[in-house]
Amino acid sequence: MKLAWILLCSLLIWGCSDSAEDGKKKKNNDSENSSQTEAAVNPEDLVEVVGSTYTEYYDAAKTKIKFQGTRDDNEQRHGKWVFYREDGKESSISHYKHGVLHGFSQVKRPNGAFYYHGEYEDGKKIGVWKYYDEKGKFSHEINFDEE
């Protein structure tokens, strides 16, 4: 009886270890295939420039916009730029002047609620910036003119 019990336990351990090894091999193959797929995408394939409008995508099929905005003659961000999450929801809006943050800026949380908003002048925060909690309820404000 002891021999049968030992044999049964050995078979269970051996069977489980093979399954674990197969799982590790499958994970390794999956991550190798994933890396090859990611490596196959040329970063230039994710970008589209039409006139002064620059658009970068999450995917090579160009179905999901990552961010979009206008550029000046020196190809610096200039004007309104909108950033999106991978699910297509708007993440933030910022304004630039020749590559430097300048003007109104707002950032939203993944649930769409405001996180904060305020203004920049030549890359520096100015005026009152308002901050909100996870549900979008006003939390506090900071006046950067008083600092």
Write the layout of secondary structure elements.
Layout: H1 2-40, E1 47-50, E2 53-57, E3 65-71, E4 77-84, E5 90-97, E6 100-108, E7 114-121, E8 124-132, E9 138-143
Antiparallel strand pairs: 1-2, 2-3, 3-4, 4-5, 5-6, 6-7, 7-8, 8-9
Q: Can you walk through the features of this model?
A:
By secondary structure, the chain is an alpha+beta fold. The chain has two domains: 1-40; 43-143, Single Sheet (Histone H3 K4-specific methyltransferase SET7/9 N-terminal domain). The protein contains one helix and nine strands. It has one helix at 2-40, and strands at residues 47-50, 53-57, 65-71, 77-84, 90-97, 100-108, 114-121, 124-132, 138-143. Strands 1-2-3-4-5-6-7-8-9 form a nine-stranded antiparallel β-sheet, with no helix packed on it. Strand 6 and strand 7 form a beta hairpin. The protein is flat and about 45 Å long.
CATH architecture label name of the largest domain? Single Sheet
Alpha-carbon Rg, integer: 26 Å
Helix-strand string: HEEEEEEEEE
Count of strand segments:
9
Q: What's the CATH topology name of the largest domain?
A: Histone H3 K4-specific methyltransferase SET7/9 N-terminal domain
Low-pLDDT ranges: 1-12, 17-21
Q: For the largest sheet, list the strands in their spatial order.
A: 1-2-3-4-5-6-7-8-9
The CATH homologous superfamily of the largest domain corresponds to Histone H3 K4-specific methyltransferase SET7/9 N-terminal domain
What percent strand?
35-45%
- Averaged pLDDT, please? 83
Number of helices: 1
Gross geometry: flat
Query: What's the number of domains?
Result: 2
Oligomer: single chain
Taking the alpha carbons of the first and last residues, their distance comes to 82 Å
